[in-house]
Amino acid sequence: ENFKPAQVLGSLKWPDNHLTTNRKLHFSIAEDDDDDVNFEIDSLTGDLFLSKELDYETASHFLLQVIIKDYNSNPPQNNTVFVSVDVEDQNDHSPYFQDAFVVIGVEENVPVGTLVYTFNAKDGDGSFVNSKIQYSLEMSNMSENLFLIHPSYGTLTTAFPLDREITRSVILTVSAADQATNLTDRRGDSLAAKIVILDINDNSPSFTSLPLSYVMEDVEVGFLVHRIMAKDPDEGRNGQVTYHILSGNENKAFVLDKITGLLTTAQLLDREIQERYSLTVMALDDGSPALSATQVLTVIILDVNDETPIFLKQLYETAVRENQDPGAFVIKVEAVDRDAGLNSLLRYEILPGTGYEKFKMNLDSGELVTSASLDRETQEFFSIKGSPSRSSTAELYLTVLDENDHNPLFAKTQYQISVREDLEEGSAILDLFASDEDDGLNGEVMYSLIDDTFGAFTIDSVTGSIFTTKALDRETKSQYTFRAVASDCSINLPRSTTVMTVLIQDVNDNVPKFEQSYYKASVWEGQSPKTDIIQVFATDLDSGLNGETEYSILSGNENAAFVIDSARGILETNTALDHEDTSSYREMSSSHRLVLLASDRGTPSLNSTATVLITVLDVNDNPPIFSSLEYHIHVKESIPIGSHVTEVSANDCDEGTNGEITYAIISGNDRGHFRLDWKTGSVDLMKTLDYEDTMKFTLIIQAT
């Protein structure tokens, strides 16, 4: 079919037995033949050739009716010959897919060998080998090919079990190639196929939270006890987990949020009623059918000291003879406590009261004995309390006769308190109390102070309240130590003392102060940044943060030439300085004044300032510069020796000896016609000039 037009296919020849010399024949294709449009015949020679290209896929066979007219006969005779033409197929069509990309879904639980998809490529060639299609498969980034394709039918099947939780999707390249005999003539096409592994509910939820939780028994209703967590690797509804309590919550003590897994209390807990719960919890996914897992969650209720010790009797009555030696047995009391552990251990004590020091209670057994001879001042009511935070009391009545045999007693032998130094005069700082278990005047307590309080404190003799009598200043005195005395009103004046220590707390009432209000310093110009210039110090009498000082530059540093260490107060260069640019900072112009600020870290912060004059010292870093690079002088040849010719001048920006200039002629004065004053730069004539001899002198003068 790839035969080109105008090429001879063959020739029609007259049979040999009919040949005669000079036979005149005429060849033609019958006009009513539909195939004559594709072929032509040479009317004289009988050569048959194409008139246009053939297409095997359009027509693979032609039958031509050729008419041969013989003019040698009279009249001329017509003969008819049928010519059969078979068209051979050429591989001129490529296989092709309808789509360049397809997406295919397959469930992950299908068995190996399941048909996933059938690929169907078309080929326009007519013959079998040229249109026969063979399929192949390529899979990228996979160690093993999960799918197989039938080379002839294009059916895609599973080659291994699929698991969406391992592989969610696969990209395949499917190729189709025809089977032309000549390998170099074979044609092909390909498409990309995305295989999406569809999830099925093949994974049960698995718990990730611990199966044990603790909660105090006194938590409020709604308290978060535990968060139950489970994971399900499935997708969508198959992986959505809800939580449920199957058993162990018959008394409705807990409620479980089925979405979040938060387990909270639904009612008040009581360890003394139930000390642990075993809840069977289920995690259920939303697949169809749904899968689940269970866990036994143990919730242990921790004891809180919420049970009050109970005495076996509410009132104990007994009698004891007065004047017995210490250690006499009085009574044994008993109590019980329903709490557990340390909370259930009882400790027996006597509540403070007048005369309670006359008795001694065995902390563990509850036996009460006397610790001194009894008198009437001993209170008739005693309390016995539980430990540590809950107690029960019982009463004990004793009758004794009074004597003034008790001293007033302070609750503590020493007190230490802290007060701010800005406390107003007359402020109460502490209420002292001393108890005297005697009765009447024997039990009335009077208070007084001994030792020097430096006029800072006084005490109310009746109430025991201590007041300030003047303004306090921690920086003057930071601590006071004195004794307070409690005495009763009897003739014998029994008394007791306690030591008072008053610590004065600092208030940020002192401003940081520089050692000097005015500093002078100098630095050489051209020094590298971070060169130390001067270290300033400021002191703050306050303590703590109130006394910590930070340094900064308040003004005069608009060009950021300097920087100060905020902690150490070291003033440094921030850039290289130039003496010729600014010789003194903070002296003449306010824009160059350095005002340093010292601030403490109190609240509010206090600060003070100091002035620093920084002189930049000169370095010989500038060469002299002549006011003019060339001097043109015209003189008459007749001027006398010693005449002033001219004066050169140079300027040096440096200062002092660095800026002092000397002049010298370094060339052009070989014959000594001129003299140069090395200080002033004045040039004078030293020899007679002769125009005819020398019309022009060029002197090279150096300024140093």
TrEMBL record:
Its main location: membrane. Keywords: Calcium, Cell adhesion, Disulfide bond, EGF-like domain, Glycoprotein, Membrane, Repeat, Signal, Transmembrane, Transmembrane helix. Transmembrane segments: none annotated. One of its GO terms (biological process) is heart morphogenesis. This is Protocadherin-23. The keyword DNA repair does not apply. PANTHER family: FAT ATYPICAL CADHERIN-RELATED, PROTOCADHERIN FAT 4. It is found in: Membrane. InterPro entries: Cadherin-like_dom, Cadherin-like_sf, Cadherin_CS. PROSITE patterns: CADHERIN_1 (PS00232), CADHERIN_2 (PS50268). SMART domains: CA (SM00112). It comes from Leptosomus discolor (Madagascar cuckoo roller). One of its GO terms (molecular function) is calcium ion binding. One of its GO terms (cellular component) is plasma membrane. Residues 1-97, 106-207, 215-311, 312-410, 411-514, 515-626, 627-704 form the Cadherin domain. The keyword Calcium applies.
